[in-house]
Amino acid sequence: MTGNAPASLLEMRGIAKSFPGVQALRHVDLSLRSGEVLALLGENGAGKSTLMKVLGGAHRADAGTIVIDGRQVSFQSPQDSRGAGVAVIYQEFNLVPVLTAVENMFLGQEVTRAGFVAKKMERERAAALFKRLGVEVDLEVPCRRLSTAQQQLVEIAKALAFEARIIVMDEPSAALTSHEVVRLFEIIRDLKSHGIGIIYISHRLDEVFSIADRVTVLRDGRNVGERPIAQITRNEMIELMVGRDLKDEFPARQVAIGAPRLEVTGLRRGGSVRDVSFSVRRGEILALTGLVGAGRTETARLIFGADARDAGEIRLDGNLLAIRSPREAIAAGVGLLTEDRKLQGLVLAHTVRENFGLPNLDRLSARGFVQLGREREELGRYVEQLKIKMPSQEQRAGHLSGGNQQKVVLAKWLARNCEVLLFDEPTRGIDVGAKYEIYLLMNQLVAEGKAIVMISSELPEVLGMADRILVMHEGRVTGEIPEARRATQEQIMELAVA
Questions:
Q1: 489, 365: one domain
Q2: Which of residues 480 and 179 earns the better pLDDT score?
Q3: Mean pLDDT, to the nearest integer, of 394-418?
Q4: Mean model confidence pLDDT for the chain
Q5: Distance CA 160, CA 173 (A)
Q6: Residues 339, 343, 346, CA angle at the centre, nearest 5°?
Q7: What local confidence, expressed as pLDDT, does residue 1 receive?
Q8: Same domain for 216 and 265?
Q9: Model's pTM, two decimal places?
Q10: What is the pLDDT of residue 208?
Q11: Is the domain of 66 the same as that of 145?
C-alpha cells in the first residue's frame, strides 16, 4: 500500500471450490483493509457463503491462497481460522441455547486457573466487553431467552473475546428492528475505529450505502466488480449482481381491482392482536406493515388457523369461514407463506419434491399412495416457471440457497391454487434478482383475480408493490393509506409509532 491508505489486512487470491456437480467459486479474489467495512454482495447462490466458509475454515479451498497481515495461512478447521483472528457471525447464530452469554463467549477457550474454569474472571471480562460495546446483556439467563439483537451482541462480544481482527457478518440485520439496526451500525463504526475489518453480507442495499466503505460483487462464483461505495450507484450495483439491467426494482402492473375477497372483522387474540378489521379485494396487493412486534405476523397466523383467535370473523367471497387449523384454511383456499421459511415453511431434511407435495397430498395421492410421476411432473412445471435452481427434485431443501427455498414454498401454494395468499416477509434474505421474479409472480397472481396480503418491514417494497397500505402498532391498525404509490416512508413511520 502507498500513501495514507490503510494496511491490507486480508487477501484471498484465486479461491476455487467445487462440490459434486457445482463449481461454487471460480478463482475469486477479495481484499479487506484494517478499519474497513467491505460489503460482499451477490445473488443467492453467487458464492458468498462458500467464500466465507473457506475463510472461516468450514470448507477447504480446492485452489488459491489466504494471506492475513502479510502472512500466508492455511485453515484445516474453524479453530485454525479463529486462531488467525477471523470470526464469522452466521445468519443462524452459532450459540448453545441452554448456555448463558458468558458460557457461550468462552466456550472452547475457557479462562482457567489451576486447571479449573475461572468463572469470576470470565464474567468480569464479559461485562467489560459488553461495556465496550455500550450495551447491557443479562449474563445469567440462557441465550434462548435473549432477543435476536441481544444474541447478535453475544456473537460480536464472543469475537472480541478472542481478539478477532476480521469479523464477517452474514445478513446481520435480517431480524432486527430499525432501532436495533441503528445501534448495530454504531457498534460496527466503533469496531472500525479499533482497526477491525468487517465483511458485511446483505441484500438490503440501503444499508450497504449507509455502512460500507467498499463493495465487492460476486456472480456465478466469480468476482465481477469491486468499487468504493462513493463510486457506484444503486442501479450499477444491481446490474453487477444480476448481470442484466433491471429498469425498475418493482415491476409495474395494471390490474382492475374488484370486490372484496377476504374480509376480517374484529380479530382478537390477547394483547398481540386487538380488534383488527380489514378487507383485501380481487386483484389487490394489500400491504400490512409496522415495526417488528406490531402484530402483523400474529394477525396472519390467526387468519390461517395456526393460532386460535379469541374473537373475530373471517369471510371469503362473502362466506363465513370457521377456520380452526391450517388444514381448514388450506381447504378454504387460504395459503400462508411463513416469515421463517426454514423453521415453518419447509422440512429441510426432506427433498424438494416431498416439500412440494405436502400441502397437495390430497390431489397427488390415490388409494393412500402418492402418485410420484404426477408429483414430479407438476413440480417440474413450477421449477421451470419460477426458475428454481437445483440439481434434481431429490435435492434436500436445506441444501438450497435462500432464494430457491423461498421459490419452493411459493410453488407449494401455487400448486394449491389458493384464492387468498398471505405473504409474510416474502423477500427477506433473498437477492434483488430473485426478488424481482417474486414481484413478477405476485403481479401475475393478482392479474388472475387472487388477493394478496403482503407483510413487509422493507418500506421501499411496501411502497413499490402495494395498492393499499395498512399500518399496525401494538396489535392495532393505526391507519390506512389508500394509494400506496403516492405515500412516503415518513407517513408510514408516523403511523407505525402512533
A1: yes
A2: 480
A3: 85
A4: 88
A5: 19
A6: 90
A7: 43
A8: no
A9: 0.67
A10: 94
A11: yes
